[in-house]
Amino acid sequence: MFDELRIAEQFSAHERIVLFHGDCLELLHSIPDQSIQLIVTSPPYNLGKEYERKLKLETYLEQQAKVISECVRVLRDNGSICWQVGNYVDNGSIIPLDSVLYPIFSDLRLKMRNRIIWHFEHGLHCSRRFSGRYETIMWFTKSNDFVFKLDPIRVPQKYPGKRYFKGPRAGEYSCNPLGKNPGDLWVIPNVKNNHVEKTEHPCQFPVELIERLVLSMTNEGDSVFDPFMGTGTSIIAAIRHERKGIGSEVFEKYIAIAKERIQQTLEGTLKTRPMDRPVYDPIRAGNSLSVSPWSQTSKAQSQDLFAAESKTPAN
Predict the structure, then answer these.
(1) Chain segment 179-205, per-residue pLDDT in tens
(2) Coil, helix or strand for 260?
(3) Hey, what domains does the chain have and what are their CATH numbers?
(4) Rounded distance, CA 33 to CA 77, Å?
(5) Half-sphere exposure of 7 (CA within 13 A, CB side)
């Protein structure tokens, strides 16, 4: 069904895919009020990476406030904003960006529905503090009447055979056969070097993370917008599920990567990690690297010592 789709460079209500090369505010100014069902993004964290210029925190927050205000304008009354952030690091001291960004959303009268913790097991290793292994997705809505569908994103029950043990339903299965609510702690691998989706972007979204938001907060045909698009993951998640995908990016090389990935999506050749795949467990998988070499050496030494003692005559 994707054969006739094209990748447009300017916003139009009739386009299914829009990749805008430029400042997101310029694109936002071309989008009419209440046109977008879901806004999902991971803005620069002001860490001085290659795709951002490190600013004073106050200046960074002022810039974010301008973008967020425009996002609220284009958001439908029953729509959602998901703003995924990490920590701002200043001379070894961290400032959680969700805490300093929250007042901006609150002042715009948005309502926080969840503070979702995205947990992953790999990343930079710290030596003077605990290594960071999570980021935060702040989910806001404009009103109390918002789209939210749990069934498409349910996860397997931990105890599917559990039954009610008392009351009028005693003996009946107590679990939803479609699965359980995934909760607000999501364990999803981040995109590192051995991830099937890895590109040269240093902070890339996994597709399955955005798919969970798209499926739960939009309907088919709705528009999904990412003001800081990167390599196009939000658009990929949208068009894979019959939604419209709109995004902006200032760096030309990431636009080129996004176009290639979106084209592969349309052709059905893009490799992604499936949303329902369990997190890899190296011990259960029997990965030899999960056995510490010093433990093996210690065990071998103990065995040699036991053998030597067994051969020694008793006094």
Answers:
(1) 999 999 999 888 787 787 687 777 788
(2) helix
(3) 17-289 (3.40.50.150)
(4) 10
(5) 19
